[in-house]
Amino acid sequence: MEKARSARKLPSALGYRMPAEWERHESTWLAWPHLKGDWPGKFEPIPWVYAEIIRNLACHERVDLIVNSERAEKSARAVLEQADALSDNVCFHRWRTDRVWTRDSGCIFLAPPADHADSGLLALHFQFNGWAKYPNYKLDEKIGARMAKAAGARVVRPVFVDPFNEDHRVVLEGGSIDVNGCGILIATEECLLSATQQRNPPMDRAAYEQLFADYFGAPSVIWLESGIAGDDTHGHVDDITRFVAPNTVVTMVEPNEQSENYAPLYANLGRLRNARTADGQKLEIIEIPMPRPVVFEGRQLPASYANFYIANGAVLAPVFNDPNDRIALNTLAELFPAREIVPIYCGDLIWGFGALHCMTQQQPVNT
Prior knowledge:
The protein is α/β, with parallel strands linked by helices. The chain is built from 10 helices and 20 strands. The strands form 7 sheets. The protein has a 4-stranded mixed β-sheet with strand order 3-2-1-20. Strands 4-5-6 form a 3-stranded mixed β-sheet, covered by helices on one side.
């Protein structure tokens, strides 16, 4: 009975949902880069890439910037000032972090139903364990609760109830899911259901689908097969397929049959073609070709145009000095005619195994 009573208090039962990324933001959360080991031999340009991102974001919304210390804030301010990116729209928070991938370590904000806007935001604070791969994550694990407190949002720590009626805190990264804001969520089996880098051993497909319905307001789940080569998260969906409208997705395709991405991306495309919305409609699917492989020190990196970020008045798009950059930018311009499409060179940034979507986390307005 205790579990049944608590079920009525779950976010979706209260009308909460995760808004789509194109819905209005209060701010974007970022963490200033500091761990040189994440970009071995390539760290020097990374703060300047961040400055370019912040300069463009701050034109459209507040940027909540996490810095490790007073000294780190001073250094960040100096870089931002030189890059003409320092403004009153940048708000600093001195919190220590292990890494800067706020999409995964930060909280995920939920918006209340429109007729109960005074209820305030909720913040899903999932457990974070370094993608079940890295040992240094204890500082990052605290970031979600700190973000929530700064935003004035009530923290919810999602749990999975096993067959023995025991609660387990759920491990989930923001890059492993994408939503359309009205009931559909996309994820990959490789990330959430594989035994490799396994986040939640007790959870199966049905348990995840219940989680998404209860906490995200997304009772419909589209399961893709796998992610792209070089992704050390083991299959995050934000490198392959993204919602750009309630019934429209962009998805990466690989025209080169010799590429190791060819078969997985083709299989994902087949699943998208078979997917249906809640009212039985097919999705509109927009294909974007992958850039040529980006390789550094003999390792293929997870370079993908799908790792864009949708801000209030702009879309920040990763580019790689590749001929397909133009196709990606033109496609996004057609899909977001009211937003500025801002190309951000990510050839150096991707050496840290993440790009624009991985480093950002949106805080929606409380409408």
